[in-house]
Write a structure and sequence with these properties.
Number of helices: 11
Largest sheet: 2 strands, antiparallel
Number of strands: 2
Structural class: mainly alpha
Order of helices and strands: HHHHHHHHEEHHH
Distance between the termini: 38 Å
């Protein structure tokens, strides 16, 4: 379905063409880090097992994720998450059929890892510690943390791609990632003003805190918004509901790959791994930053 790119300059007729295609290879390989994370989180949350059982060839021998498990959720939410999970498997297949890729990086999907992010968002330790697998709303809130980051990365990478096949693939991936994010936000928005047990904090406040944290970690201004905003920040400055995030023209925000690393590492430093990627992300771009650490 997708043409496979070569991974060395010698395969192309001129240095210029080689450089253009290798830029595409790097930009297409980087999202594998997030697609692995999404696939494993959704698979384990819905089914109780991950790629090792569903599609072991896609892992390329990478280590099994830490701490992931089947979540508690109602049948409707589980059905939605199953669909997300299998969509992510498809994304991995699509990218790996286009570029060589790399083995699944070590992922920490334990409750402790998510609790660390949530505590950072609230600037205090929640009691009991946040556990994404404890309930359907918890899992949706944890899911709020994931597809949107990849979405903004695809928006940021798109203008840099050279080959039409690369552009088509990223447009297709972006479309589905955007859909996932919209579904998650819509499901949460329905309960925006309900309090999450046992914290007494509304769903909307959780999302606002998560978005503020990502803005802080990304260190590149406001590129993230929660489900309820002040009216002046809503669409056309006329509404507080914010079921879809966007700039003042309701256009999707973009992020650089460095911003994404700062966020998923939870360190506000693309050179310092942590949280979901204890040993760092993989691929040429991510590794180039690790070498500078």
């Amino acid at each position: 379905m997708y043409a496979k790119f070569a991974s060395s300059r010698e395969a192309y007729p001129s240095p210029r063409i080689a450089q253009e295609f290798l830029v595409d290879v790097d930009l297409l390989e980087f999202p594998l880090n997030l697609e692995y994370l999404e696939a494993e989180f959704f698979l384990y949350g819905a089914y109780g097992y991950g790629l090792n059982k569903i599609a072991p060839n896609l892992t390329k021998g990478g280590p099994t994720p830490i701490g992931a498990k089947r979540g508690k959720m109602d049948n409707f939410i589980r059905d939605v998450i199953k669909q997300f999970a299998l969509q992510e498997v498809g994304h991995l297949r699509a990218i790996q059929s286009t570029v060589k890729g790399f083995p699944r990086p070590l992922l920490n999907l334990s409750p402790k890892s998510f609790a660390k992010v949530v505590d950072s968002a609230f600037e205090k330790q929640l009691v009991p510690s946040f556990d994404p697998y404890r309930s359907g709303v918890n899992f949706l809130l944890a899911s709020y943390l994931i597809p949107y980051v990849g979405l903004t990365g695809y928006v940021g990478a798109s203008p840099k791609l050279q080959d039409p096949k690369s552009k088509r693939l990223v447009a297709g991936l972006l479309g589905v990632e955007s859909g996932q994010d919209a579904v998650i936000r819509a499901l949460l928005y329905e309960h925006a003003h309900k309090k999450v047990k046992p914290y007494g904090i509304t769903v909307a406040e959780f999302t606002n805190r998560f978005s503020q944290l990502r803005n802080k970690l990304g260190n590149a201004g406001v590129k993230d918004e929660g489900l309820v905003v002040v009216e002046s920040e809503g669409a056309e400055g006329l509404i507080t509901g914010n079921v879809l995030a966007g700039d003042k023209y309701s256009v999707a925000f973009d992020r650089t790959l460095e911003e994404i690393l700062r966020i998923v590492y939870g360190s506000d430093d693309e050179h310092k791994p942590g949280v979901f990627y204890p040993k760092g992300a993989d691929g040429h771009i991510a590794k180039s930053h690790l070498l500078k650490a």
